[in-house]
Write a structure and sequence with these properties.
35% of the residues lie in helices and 22% in strands. The protein contains 9 helices and 13 strands. The chain binds ligand DP6.
């Protein structure tokens, strides 16, 4: 199956004829606590394992989309935070290819305006929120009235982690087993955890040297340890859901940390190796472990870059901020 066939399955007879003048949607960014690393289908972004994330509340992407009917433009107009994006950047090309899945006619051209309020250069996978917001905005523009789970499948076709960006709170992306991926979609957990805090520890804002797509493929095909990953992930995921249900922060934090380190260890063994950490990343990890030895409940997770995301509870926020003064602190469930 290719992406277009999946889109046709979901949209069935809902033609892409604009019902509204423009479509609008906000999608939150999300941080994986149990990581998605490795695909079983590269075309449809079907994962090798399920994963679990926490959404970042009001931080994310808000997209407005409209069809340019009476313009002479032959290319999509893409705006990010008020600046027109050049059509030949990798980002524009990616988005154009994604929008191609939804165009009724070859001549349909879109104006897409996205406002991203994630701290600039946070090294956050803003593509998850970005693709989710585009899908949500198309759903609004064309009045498809799709449920979040269906939007999740469409978002996944843009970027795997986008499948988790259609809800706030804890979201599990269930891997599914079907070849067409119709059962590979997000699912929101009912638990809330208002005291949970995520801190963005920005160490380097330069673009990553290896994209997560390329790094994942290389890990799956060359890392001798990859075969151990699905089993570890299943154990971690089950234990993490129990920790969330029991509101046991130390269990949640330690699973999140070992899960991220496990993912990075797979990459170290890939050929050629992939090492996203920098000296400042390692130094910060040692500091976090030292503070923890001294009794502070502080953990980290790391994605495909050198920055860390710190996990702690509201009652430790002041202490953590004094130890990491540049930290951007986010309350995923809102301030109490
Ligand atoms: C480390 O979702 O960006 O952040 O599906 O190729 O677009 P593609 O990958 P992407 O990968 C995210 C990887 C991660 C872990 C996670 O978010 O689960």
């Amino acid at each position: 199956l290719n992406k277009k066939e999946v889109v046709e399955k979901i949209l069935k007879d809902s033609l892409c004829v604009a019902k509204n003048k423009q479509g609008v949607y906000f999608a939150p960014a999300n941080i994986a606590l149990c990581k998605y690393w490795g695909k079983r289908d590269l075309e449809l972004n079907l994962p090798q394992t399920s994963s679990l994330s926490v959404s970042l509340g009001h931080l994310g992407a808000k997209t407005t989309i409209e069809e340019l009917t009476d313009s002479k433009e032959t290319m999509d107009e893409i705006w990010i935070n008020g600046k027109r994006e050049k059509p030949n950047t990798p980002f524009s090309k990616n988005l154009k290819n994604f929008l191609d899945l939804f165009r009724l006619t070859k001549t349909c051209v879109y104006r897409v305006k996205t406002a991203i309020n994630i701290p600039i250069g946070a090294g956050l996978a803003s593509s998850a929120a970005g693709f989710a917001a585009v899908v949500g905005a198309l759903n609004d523009l064309y009045a498809w009235q799709l449920a979040p789970a269906e939007l999740s499948i469409l978002g996944r076709l843009g970027s795997g982690s986008a499948s988790r960006s259609f809800w706030s709170g804890f979201v599990e992306w269930q891997m599914g087993i079907r070849e067409d991926g119709m059962d590979s979609k997000g699912h929101v957990l009912t638990e809330q955890w208002p005291a949970l805090r995520v801190g963005m520890l920005i160490l380097n804002t330069a673009p990553k040297p290896v994209s997560s797509r390329v790094a994942m493929e290389r890990t799956v095909s060359t890392s001798p340890f990859y075969t151990a990953w699905p089993a570890k992930q299943a154990v971690d995921l089950r234990a993490m859901k129990e920790a969330i249900a029991a509101q046991d922060f130390n269990v949640l934090g330690s699973i999140a940390e070992t899960n991220a380190l496990g993912m990075h260890s797979l990459m170290l063994a890939a050929k050629p190796p992939i090492l996203y950490s920098e000296p400042s990343t390692i130094e910060s990890m040692h500091r976090i472990w030292q503070y923890r030895d001294q009794g502070l409940s502080l953990y980290f997770t790391q994605d495909a870059g050198p920055n860390l995301k710190l996990l702690f509870l509201e009652k430790e926020a002041e202490t953590v901020k004094s130890l990491f003064p540049t930290l951007e602190i986010i309350a995923p469930f809102g301030e109490k």
